[in-house]
From TrEMBL:
Assembly: Homodimer.
Official protein name in the record: Iron-sulfur cluster carrier protein
Keyword Cell membrane: no
Annotated source species: Sphingobium xenophagum
Top-rank taxon: Bacteria
Lineage of the species this protein comes from: Bacteria, Pseudomonadati, Pseudomonadota, Alphaproteobacteria, Sphingomonadales
């Protein structure tokens, strides 16, 4: 490997892929750096490190960096279900953590107005978001993931009496917050498939949707409804996740299937959408979730299940850039 190739490789790691390939002519190294979303300190530190590194390349006497503010659009992944209680919030939190562990710059929005639970799931209950220039600044959850919840805007129970437009405005405040260099926003959607959900999807145009269902037929019928909500406004389906798929015995780990196996996968096939994976009904998942310690942040079979789902979501996003 030559020195410039070595430097180029270091540059990618140093700038998180924000720099163009450097060129050297007559001792002058030139490159472009996308500084969109970087804070001033972060930007200056990266510029200084590039200059310092560039000057170590033999023959380079000057380093010129063109700064561009090409802001990468925030891509939204909407996590939805046709009805409540199927594990949409649990999946959203663990998907965000697993995507983060795969190297994505992820943020999390809890748009569940009637039962916001992400602050508890992500261990950020004691934090309050600040505002800068009328924009909310996210708080930080597990693994340093920036996040905002409806619970940060309204006291529990109060939103029950809200009308659609009020809910819509509140949701927009969460999504249009100051997300910094976040590139992917996992949005735990409000449960159900009514007007609020439709408006939200129309306004914020998610890159794609993940539908969560349990194996029971009824939940799957509801899932079909959630699918058609996104289809109405042309939001592509990333796929279906089957949650509480079989019961994992806490003693021996054996999985029993009171509702049968493969129903959700078959339903996904019938709806012509990818099947992203299944997560068992496991006491550990509930216990850890309640304690603000999402299983996806650790190791083991549950972490593996969430990682596999996140990988499929990441692959989908990679194919649809
Ligand atoms: N795979 C799982 N194994 C065990 N418990 C689970 C699993 N998934 C979710 N739960 C538990 O089920 C309950 C409901 O989950 P969750 O809040 O994620 O569902 P939801 O669809 O977001 O519900 P709501 O719409 O009411 O907010 C929670 O107590 C959660 O800990």
């Amino acid at each position: 490997m030559t020195d410039i190739a070595d430097f180029t490789a270091r540059l990618t790691a140093l700038t998180d892929g924000r720099a163009s390939a450097p060129r050297v002519r007559n001792g002058v190294m030139t490159l472009a750096l996308d500084v969109g979303g970087l804070g001033p300190d972060q930007r200056d530190a990266i510029l200084a490190a590039i200059r310092e590194g560039g000057l170590t390349v033999p023959g380079v006497t000057d380093v010129r960096i063109a700064q561009t503010a090409e802001r990468r659009p925030l891509r939204i992944i909407a996590v939805a279900s046709g009805k409540g209680g199927v594990g949409k919030s649990t999946l959203s939190a663990n998907l965000a953590v697993a995507l983060h562990r795969l190297g994505h710059k992820v943020g999390l929005v809890d748009a569940d107005i009637y039962g916001p639970s992400q602050a508890r799931l992500m261990g950020s209950e004691d934090q309050k978001p600040q505002a800068r220039e009328k924009k909310l600044i996210p708080v930080t959850g597990v693994a340093g993931i920036p996040m905002l919840s409806m619970a940060h805007l309204v006291e529990p129970g109060k939103a029950l009496a809200w009308r659609g437009p009020m809910v819509g405005n509140a949701l927009s405040q969460l999504i249009d917050a100051d997300w910094g260099d976040t590139q992917l926003l996992v949005v735990d959607m409000p449960p159900g498939t009514g007007d609020i959900q439709l408006t939200m999807v129309q306004k914020h145009k998610p890159a794609g949707a993940v539908i969560v269902s349990t194996p029971q037929d009824l939940a799957l019928i509801d899932a079909t409804r959630a699918v058609s909500l996104f289809a109405q406004v042309g939001v592509p389906m990333i796929g279906l996740v089957e949650n509480m798929a079989g019961y994992a015995c806490p003693h021996c780990g054996e999985i029993s299937d009171p509702f049968g196996q493969g129903g959700a996968e078959a339903a996904a096939g019938e709806m012509d959408m990818p099947f992203l994976g299944r997560v068992p009904l496991a006491i550990d998942i509930r216990r850890q979730s309640d304690a603000g310690d999402p299983p996806a942040a650790g190791e083991g079979i549950h972490a593996d299940a969430f990682r596999a789902i996140a990988q499929r979501v990441a692959d989908w996003l990679g194919r649809t850039v």
